Amino acid sequence: MADEGRGAPVGAGVPGVPGVVAVDHVGIAVRDLDEAIRFHTEVLGLVLVHRETNEQQGVAEAMLAAAPAPASPGGPVDGAAQVQLLAPLDDASPLARFLERSGPGLQQLAYRVADLDHACAELRTRGLRLLYDRPASGTRGSRINFVHPRDAGGVLLELVEVAVP
């Protein structure tokens, strides 16, 4: 019987994707961005930290984060994973097709990477398909790419290289 609390972690000795540093965000597909923001801020107490329209991706989006503890100064915790709410700009958007097929809900899991080009090259050498030949533009000027869900257990994985301010 395996002792789940001891021993080498699963995958020990297998080099990981270079530069994965954190879970960046979880993307949730919604039909009504304003209503979803209202729910997450007024009901769940998250803080709206960023909102933008990304024409290239065909989405309107909002990034939300957990509010700091009452004793903590300032805004949301730096570097903590966030929630990304995504609404399609029109019916031709890939996100509109996702909503039509799957309905609202979890759309993607995003990992923050130190070097997107290196991470993409490494994943390709491991036989994974990426959605873009070259990185696309993401939230707040980040560079992004996606691992095809069929190569990632049915989950759309986003790789995010955060823009340097």
Automatic annotation (TrEMBL):
<dbReference type="InterPro" id="IPR037523">
    <property type="entry name" value="VOC_core"/>
</dbReference>
<keyword id="KW-0479">Metal-binding</keyword>
<dbReference type="InterPro" id="IPR051785">
    <property type="entry name" value="MMCE/EMCE_epimerase"/>
</dbReference>
<protein>
    <submittedName>
        <fullName>Methylmalonyl-CoA/ethylmalonyl-CoA epimerase</fullName>
    </submittedName>
</protein>
<dbReference type="InterPro" id="IPR029068">
    <property type="entry name" value="Glyas_Bleomycin-R_OHBP_Dase"/>
</dbReference>
<comment type="similarity">
    <text>Belongs to the methylmalonyl-CoA epimerase family.</text>
</comment>
<dbReference type="GO" id="GO:0004493">
    <property type="term" value="F:methylmalonyl-CoA epimerase activity"/>
</dbReference>
<dbReference type="InterPro" id="IPR017515">
    <property type="entry name" value="MeMalonyl-CoA_epimerase"/>
</dbReference>
<dbReference type="GO" id="GO:0046491">
    <property type="term" value="P:L-methylmalonyl-CoA metabolic process"/>
</dbReference>
<dbReference type="GO" id="GO:0046872">
    <property type="term" value="F:metal ion binding"/>
</dbReference>
<dbReference type="Pfam" id="PF13669">
    <property type="entry name" value="Glyoxalase_4"/>
</dbReference>
<feature type="domain" description="VOC">
    <location>
        <begin position="22"/>
        <end position="162"/>
    </location>
</feature>
